[in-house]
Specification:
15% strand, 59% helix, four-stranded antiparallel beta sheet, Beta-Lactamase, alpha+beta, six-stranded antiparallel beta sheet
Length: 473
């Protein structure tokens, strides 16, 4: 049996693995996107709360004077202690107040206050002081981002690169009573921490999906193997053996068409299919037996019919069609003429000198003479029916290829008869000769096959007279 190119079990396994892989990728992207969006929203809320809390404890008018004079007041120091305590208690990267300076000379960032933890103050007690200018710390793009945030009236959230790392920043402009945007209160959260949280969450999600996928693939494959693929495999094997026996050319005994049903108890459509195939195999064997019996009867009847046809429609001497079959053929041709689908020609052939052969050499050689002439006609017109309609008269009905090549074939037939008639090395009854007449159906003048036959007969008779006159000369 032919090897199966795509076994069902393998196809199901490949499809399941591909589906789980696609599911993993899709859910991973979805989890990454969803968690990332959710986490950034949470950080937005968290940083906004911190900024609102710190802003509520800042005396902005006092801070405005500090920025103008460069002198730290008591309120400024209290604000610094508050921001340091928030740095100590909350998991943030930086908490600071800055002001971008975009003058004509140099662009930089003015430090107002930078909060720090107790450990940070201990290791770096100086830090950045009030109105300290930072050049080459922020890029021009970052300075423009901070400047845009300063000019707004609401909190801005953006990512920025600096000497201190890659941060996600929330910036709130501090606006005094005069409506001046004096500085930016900023909170930074390390983006690496955010990305790590997102990546960790996504990785856990992917692992869980993969584990669940593997469990699903294992359970599903086992179930499919037990209930579908293995039973179908057994069914295919049994049907294959049955098909091999049924197609065997050497063995024709229908009693050998025994289908061995596999033992399938899946209680599903596969079991139902197995039972249906078993019943079908039994019905097939019975059907074949009935057909063979009927074939025997039909062959016997066909033999009888063929024998009757031979008797009824075949010329006993030459074995070509007889006048009765010619009459039957005439009915078909007349129907074609009536339907305007006729395209044919008729060749009349009258064997010359038959009476002379009979009189001088006997009827036995006369029969040989007729048979030889008939064989020449049949050999030349091997695609057309030949009829013997009289003692020495033959009719050829030319259709299809012989009709298209009629002129060439008639010329060949004349050549064959002339060659045979002039061959002095043969006996007189072996020198075959015939008068010929060919008429082609013309839809404008012919209303039946008999009209064409009459014209062919007239032409044949004319040819016979011309041949006779030529021999007398």
């Amino acid at each position: 049996m032919k090897t199966i190119e795509k076994p069902l079990k393998r196809s199901i396994l490949i499809f399941t693995i591909a589906f789980i892989a696609l599911l993993c990728v899709t859910l991973s992207i979805l989890a990454y996107s969803t968690f990332s969006s959710s986490l950034y929203r949470a950080y937005d809320k968290r940083t906004s709360d911190i900024i609102e809390y710190v802003e509520g404890h800042i005396d902005i008018e006092d801070l405005t004077k500090c920025i103008e004079t460069g002198v730290e007041t008591e309120k400024f120091k209290e604000m610094g202690l508050l921001m340091d305590s928030i740095m100590e208690d909350f998991d943030i990267h930086y908490l600071y107040i800055v002001k971008p300076v975009l003058g004509d000379a140099e662009h930089g960032m003015m430090n107002i206050f930078s909060a720090d933890t107790a450990e940070g103050r201990a290791t770096d007690p100086d830090g950045y002081y009030l109105n300290y200018m930072m050049y080459d710390v922020y890029t021009e793009e970052d300075l423009q981002t901070y400047q845009a945030a300063l000019e707004r009236n609401t909190i801005s959230h953006f990512k920025n690169f600096s000497t201190w790392g890659y941060d996600y920043t929330a910036a709130q402009p501090l606006i005094n009573d005069a409506g001046e945007h004096i500085a930016l209160l900023c909170v930074d959260i390390n983006v690496e921490d955010i990305q790590f949280a997102i990546t960790a969450h996504t990785a856990i999600t992917v692992v869980l999906i993969m584990v669940m996928g593997m469990v699903f693939i294992t359970v599903f494959t086992m179930w499919m193997s037990s209930n579908v693929t293995e039973p179908i495999g057994q069914l295919e094997k049994s049907v294959g053996v049955f098909a091999k026996v049924s197609h065997s050319k050497e063995e024709k005994d229908p009693n050998l068409l025994n289908y061995k049903a596999p033992d399938i108890h899946t209680k599903n459509e596969v079991e139902s299919l197995s039972k249906a195939i078993t019943q079908m195999a039994m019905d097939m064997r019975m059907y074949v037996n009935n057909i063979l019996e009927a074939e025997g009867m039909v062959e016997d009847m066909k033999s009888k019919v063929n024998r009757m046809d031979m008797i009824a429609y075949q010329d006993a001497l030459t074995n070509v069609k007889n006048k009765a079959w010619y009459d039957k053929t005439q009915e078909r041709i007349n129907e074609n003429i009536a339907n305007n689908t006729a395209s044919f020609a008729i060749l009349m052939a009258d064997v010359n000198n038959l009476k002379k052969i009979n009189d001088h050499y006997g009827h036995e050689h006369g029969n040989d003479f007729l048979l030889g002439a008939c064989r020449i006609i049949c050999r030349v017109f091997n695609h057309s029916p030949v009829f013997r309609i009289g003692g020495d008269e033959f009719v050829v009905l030319l259709e299809n290829i012989d009709y298209r090549n009629r002129d060439k074939l008639v010329a060949k037939l004349k050549e064959e008869f002339d060659k045979s008639a002039l061959d002095k090395s043969k006996e007189p009854w072996e020198r075959y000769s015939a008068a010929l007449g060919l008429a082609v159906y013309d839809q404008y003048i012919d209303t039946s096959m008999n009209d064409v036959f009459k014209r062919a007969d007239d032409l044949m008779y004319k040819n016979k007279l011309e041949s006779k006159m030529a021999r007398e000369d």
